[in-house]
Amino acid sequence: MVTTPIYLTGYSLGANFALRIARKHSNTPIKGLKKILAIAPPIHPELTTDRIDQILLFRYYFLKKWFGSLKEKQALFPHLYDFHDVFKLKTIRAITEVLVAKYTNYKDACDYFSHYTLLGNALKDISIPTTIVTATDDPIIPVKNFYELTLNDHINLIIHQHGGHIGFIENYYLQSWIDPFLHDWASS
Fold first, then answer.
1. In whole angstroms, what is the distance from residue 104 CA to residue 123 CA?
2. What are the phi and psi torsion angles at 71 (to 5°)?
3. Do 158 and 132 touch, CB atoms closer than 8 A?
4. What confidence tens digit (pLDDT) does each residue in 55-91 have?
5. Residue pLDDT, tens place only, 97-123
């Protein structure tokens, strides 16, 4: 039986998920998973959440996106979800607190964030080729946390001087460095 190769790529919170899958793969292998690319992962999600709330443009963008997805989820599953109280909230932190209390088994948002945190030695046992891409000028994900990670030979950490939060714009034509990189990464 031939297994189709799987290449997992995640951006931002999706990159955090991808890294946690890479970590879990070390103990419970996923058939066909060949390599992982994590672009701008919030490895300290509590701090990232607070930084988003501090920057008006980012907070507006993330609230709009999150409210949109919550409205869609509520419309699809009205018997499971009622987010009307959430739509009145003004910060990502406040929404997280309410949703964690209402829909999860975590004690609170801090407990929830702790399960998504990937600092220090959290990635040291990854056994699959994994590339992490971040930027020193990302306004919501501090680069210093990446320098403090314990990495191994399976992990390639790429830190760009410029890239913001998943932009990686390389010229005045607004072309992204990440697009050709992604193609090369998947092809190699």
1. 25
2. -65, -40
3. yes
4. 999 999 999 999 999 999 999 999 999 999 999 999 9
5. 999 999 999 999 999 999 999 999 999
Residue 27 has pLDDT above 80, yes or no: yes
Residue ranges, CATH 3.40.50.1820, the chain: 6-44+117-187
45-54 and 56-76 are packed helices; what angle lies between their axes, rounded to 10 degrees?
110
Nearest to 126 by CA among 19, 17, 32: 19
8 A C-beta contact, residue 130 and residue 155? yes
**CA Rg, the chain, in Å?**
18
Closest by Cα among 105, 132, 97 to 20: 132
Topology of domain 6-44+117-187 in CATH is Rossmann fold (3.40.50)
Tokens 């050709």 found at: 180
Extract the tokens encoding 64: 């709009």
Dist. CA 129–CA 165, nearest whole Å: 23
The whole model's pTM is what? 0.92
Which contiguous run of DSSP H or E holds residue 10?
strand 6-11
